[in-house]
Amino acid sequence: MKEVVVISGKGGTGKTSITASFAVIGRDNIVVGDCDVDADDMHLLLEPDYKSTEDFYSGYTAVIDQEKCTACGKCMDVCRFKAVDNKIGKFEINSADCEGCGYCCVICPEKAITMQDAYVGEVFISGIKTGTEMVHARLKAGADNSGKLVARVKKIAGEIAKKDGKDLILIDGSPGIGCPVISSLSGADFVILVTEPTPSGIHDLKRVFELIQKFKIRSGLIINKHDLNLELSAELKDFAKNEGIKVLAEIPYEPDFTKAMTEGFTVVEYNNKTLKKILTEAWAEAEKEIYKEVIK
Amino acid sequence: MKIAIASGKGGTGKTTLSTNLADLCAERKDFPGIILADMDVEEPNSGLFIQREVQKEIIRNKMIPQWDKDLCSNCGVCDSICRFNSLLKLGKTILVMPELCHSCYACSELCPENALPMQMQKMGRQTIFNTDSFIFIESRLDVGQEQAVPLIAQSIEYIDSKYPKDFLVLLDSPPGSSCPVIEAAKNSDFVILVTEPTPFGLHDLKMAVNTMREIKKDFAVVINRFGIGNDAVIRYCSDEKIDIIAKLPDKREIAELYSKGKLVHRDVPEFGKELKKVAKYLKRLSDRRNNQ
Q1: Which of B258, B287, B267, B215 is CA-nearest to residue B12?
Q2: What does the H/E/C string look like for A185-231?
Q3: What phi, psi does A107 have (nearest 5°)?
């Protein structure tokens, strides 16, 4: 069983549209995971049925028992996150700022502070239109610990793939290089990088590539909107060549991407033969790379 | 006045709006000074569109405990206190995992032997640049660091302490609706949410709106790439009584200028006209705040 993660560094490069297309092309051999938990968009293309839901808790939030509190203010003194409010002599924890370290709880002389499990969001298991299953999640507004929620989605996706004997887990990751991305990369076998030939696209790709090198994961590159700037496209291909990254596809700037998405379809289900061909070939190339025996 | 320019979905045009708006506002002179601060510390891009000269570079550190084995009595208090699993007592050794540490200081200050003094560890840098017309500040997280929040917090604190309150500060913020964008938004006076009129744009806008409401922050919307997709974003904003400040047009020409690292508002009049609405909105917002 292999785990493949699609990331981009920069947002809006077409990562989700491409991941969903691959899920459709690969059909029922693939378990899908949407790890972009604070901008989860795969459900808009893959028609999930939300057949099971779990509440996910991770980390803690401090709560002050007003009956016991003597307003000594020690909690406020030790909190490094400015999460303790003192309005008209009453001390309260602002849960959006509380990181759940528990220092206040330990220091409180009246034992008036308890640490409660923090609600992070919901995790869903759904049947989807490709005939397989997708694990997805929704981060609660203002919640911390998106990295933990990502890890949970991946864990469930792995269990489903094992149980159902699927060969592949396909993960849609978040933009950036921070904790949700690092969490989505842990344990991955292959990374598909999606970028565009713009200064931001190149800059962000290089940073995210530096990150996956730390994890020693092999990768392939998709250049989306490649004809927007042919000079920068060539620069991207040079970069890929020098770094030993396989270029899986060059996709033209094409309004049908957005049109398909607006109608709730992946690009490969839409009436655009060129895009369908490019993406089908890209997935075939990706599969070759994913299953390639690596000599260590 | 500090304005966070944020979005649920990535790639909706935060950086395009921030850079062009800083340039336009500097030209209009509605404010005594303009600062553009790139707070998308994981992937800072604003600088790619701005001619700039380094004025000052500040190394940004986070504080993590360092174990002093000579002072340690092996009592295990630190291990029992740390809720982030960043400290582990393994036999007679205390193992610190800096990437998991939230710098809460609990282990360090509650250690009876003072065997865990807090020490600086580099997490990134903040660079102050001069440009022809405004101040540009970029904060950049080191690759491999997990937490963007401490760097954003320190960067905004620096801006608050160094520059007059009547300057317009535009914070080009991280995408999403979790901790990094919350850190930028909660330290701002107002938030502009940039979206695109598509199902992805709408869904992620709703996530961002819920987050702004959760942290009780005032906000309004700018629609970018107006003309693609459908009118669901407009209907949503109207139902929810959310101001739409401007509708920046969708044009291949804009995408091409962006791909060349160029600003757009002077070369594409339809874009410039809508951008002016944003500048005027901020001026009115500032006047209203000053009269309160």
Answers
A1: B258
A2: HCCCCEEEEEECCCHHHHHHHHHHHHHHHHCCCEEEEEECCHHHCHH
A3: -85, -20
Domains (ranges, CATH) in chain B? 2-61+124-291 (3.40.50.300), 67-116 (3.30.70.20)
Q: How far is B10 from chain A (nearest CA, A)?
A: 4
Give the residue ranges of DSSP H helices in chain A. Answer: 15-26, 43-46, 74-78, 103-107, 146-164, 179-185, 199-214, 230-243, 256-262, 273-291
pLDDT of residue A175: 94
- The tokens for A35 are 């790890």
| Residues of chain B numbered 261-280 and touching chain A (CB < 8 Å) | 261
The pLDDT score that the predictor gives to residue B278 is 98
Would you state the torsion angle of the CA atoms of residues A65, A66, A69, A72, taken in this order, to the nearest 10 degrees? 120
Instruction: Say which residue the tokens 């220091």 belong to.
Output: A107
Query: Which residues 6+ apart lie within 8 Å of B132 measured at CB?
Result: B51
One-letter amino acid for residue B179 of the chain: C
| Chain B residue with the nearest C-alpha to that of A43 | B200
Q: Is the pLDDT of residue A296 over 60?
A: no
Residues paired with residue B59 on neighbouring β-strands, in sequence order: B125
A-B C-beta contacts closer than 8 Å = 180
What is the end-to-end Cα distance of chain B in Å, rounded? 14
Q: Whose structure tokens read 């970069």?
A: A239
Q: What are phi and psi of B77, to 5 degrees?
A: -60, -45
- pLDDT, mean of residues B140-162: 96
Q: Is the pLDDT of residue A204 over 60?
A: yes
Helix (H, G, I), strand (E, B) or coil at A125: strand
pLDDT digits (tens, 9 = 90+) for B21-48: 999 999 999 999 999 999 999 999 999 9
CB distance A178 to B210 below 8 Å: no
Report chain A's mean pLDDT, rounded to a whole number: 95
**Backbone torsions φ then ψ of A148, nearest 5 degrees:** -70, -35
CA A133 to chain centre: 17
- How many CB atoms neighbour CB A163 within 10 A? 10
Bridge partner residues of A270 (DSSP): none
Which neighbouring-strand residues pair with A52?
A125
Any chain B CB within 8 A of the CB of A139?
yes
CATH top-level class for A58-119? alpha beta
CATH T-level topology, domain A2-47+128-291: Rossmann fold (3.40.50)
B106 closest CB neighbour out of A102, A177, A197: A102
| ipTM of the complex model | 0.93
Spatial distance between the Cα atoms of B177 and A151, rounded to a whole number of angstroms:
18
pLDDT at A92 over 90: yes
Q: At CA A9, angle to CA A280 and CA B58, rounded to 5?
A: 170
Cβ count near A64 (within 10 Å):
21
What is the mean predicted confidence (pLDDT) over A45-51?
98
The domain spans of chain A are 2-47+128-291, 58-119
Give the end-to-end CA distance of chain A in Å, rounded to a whole number: 19
How confident is the model over A93-123, as pLDDT tens digits?
998 889 999 999 999 999 999 999 999 999 9
pLDDT for res A295: 57
